[in-house]
């Protein structure tokens, strides 16, 4: 039995290796360096139980015998195949076993350019670790570790030894601690996504060193402190998402230097105070998302000059005064959200000219007067127009036509209470704003509702 088994095995091995040896005279023996092959198998064993990788894929870089999720490149100078890309976690790529842990040997693969590990570390808490004897030059350009609920601990500062990195994606893990400043020495970086972790501390001022950075997403973390003014030096930036942190202070004036910025999200922070005058520099901005901040200032006129704006979200932030009529110049605006503020006065008549708008929420403010929209406008927006919670607003009877935007008809006695001039309730309003200013913004929604009650 044993003899026959070992004989068969030997025969099998001979058969496998035979074509390689037989071709050496004419063609190069296109296999891998033993060290690289062994490292690769160790990584596969640490991550995946899909196969017995050594037996199923004895030569994983050989065209025709490689598994999905691996890419290799033949290097004529050394006559060998080298792994350039590894992709784990999503079919058809190899899936990970429950006890998979981070394979630090992965950084020893000498030609690896891209790593993708998605939904892989889910049970055994594991950390991103780099081996102590890192190669001096790493060609790794993309490190993407995403949706790994058991990937914990800090982002190691040694990540800065991966000098060729262009893309770092570490979103939806359980990473903690501060963003290591060392990351910002990686001057080839084009994209950083650290969203959906529980990173703490401040955004390092060293961020300004990244001249090539196009996308920065730090949303859904626990970052505190101000937005550093060095942000203005990241000139190539097109997408900046800092939403859902605890950032405080003013938006720095230098933000206006980001002439390439298309997407800016600052929602759900503790930002407050006046908008910087530099805002008008954002001439390519299409999305400005800044709900849920304790701003307590008038709406800035400057937005009216950002002609490319398509979406403007400024809800739930204590804005007061009137809606600037300059916003009517935003001809490409498709969505505007100003609900849950303390805006007063009339809806600018020019809003009726916003021909691309399909969503408009002005609910829960102190707007008054006749709604300036005709029946075709009301019909076009339908349920995407919300004007409710503005007791002073009414619709011209000729425009109503069965629409429900949360507003009564002008002059209708049943809704006459809606027409009461708001000025009467000036005193309680003041009282409320006093309270609002001195209480934490977390309670903003509830306070706003409460204010409504106290003068209604
Ligand atoms: C992060 O912030 C969230 C929401 O503010 C909070 O529930 C959580 O405890 C914070 N976590 C850490 C690690 O600070
Ligand atoms: C508005 O959008 C259209 C179509 O997307 C685009 O061609 C045009 O340049 C935009 N206008 C402005 C002022 O950005
Ligand atoms: C709306 O557009 C029309 C036609 O372009 C223009 O005549 C009118 O002045 C505009 N209304 C406002 C309030 O901007
Ligand atoms: C409604 O207003 C728009 C914009 O001012 C105008 O183009 C359109 O002709 C009006 N429609 C009706 C039915 O009055
Ligand atoms: C408008 O905002 C209010 C308050 O946040 C919300 O309840 C409502 O669903 C929104 N309406 C639309 C059409 O977006």
Automatic annotation (TrEMBL):
<keyword id="KW-0675">Receptor</keyword>
<keyword id="KW-1133">Transmembrane helix</keyword>
<protein>
    <submittedName>
        <fullName>Uncharacterized protein</fullName>
    </submittedName>
</protein>
<feature type="signal peptide">
    <location>
        <begin position="1"/>
        <end position="24"/>
    </location>
</feature>
<keyword id="KW-0812">Transmembrane</keyword>
<keyword id="KW-0472">Membrane</keyword>
<comment type="similarity">
    <text>Belongs to the RLP family.</text>
</comment>
<keyword id="KW-0433">Leucine-rich repeat</keyword>
<keyword id="KW-0732">Signal</keyword>
<feature type="transmembrane region" description="Helical">
    <location>
        <begin position="436"/>
        <end position="455"/>
    </location>
</feature>
<dbReference type="InterPro" id="IPR001611">
    <property type="entry name" value="Leu-rich_rpt"/>
</dbReference>
<dbReference type="InterPro" id="IPR003591">
    <property type="entry name" value="Leu-rich_rpt_typical-subtyp"/>
</dbReference>
<dbReference type="Pfam" id="PF00560">
    <property type="entry name" value="LRR_1"/>
</dbReference>
<dbReference type="Pfam" id="PF13855">
    <property type="entry name" value="LRR_8"/>
</dbReference>
<keyword id="KW-0325">Glycoprotein</keyword>
<dbReference type="InterPro" id="IPR032675">
    <property type="entry name" value="LRR_dom_sf"/>
</dbReference>
<keyword id="KW-0677">Repeat</keyword>
<keyword id="KW-1003">Cell membrane</keyword>
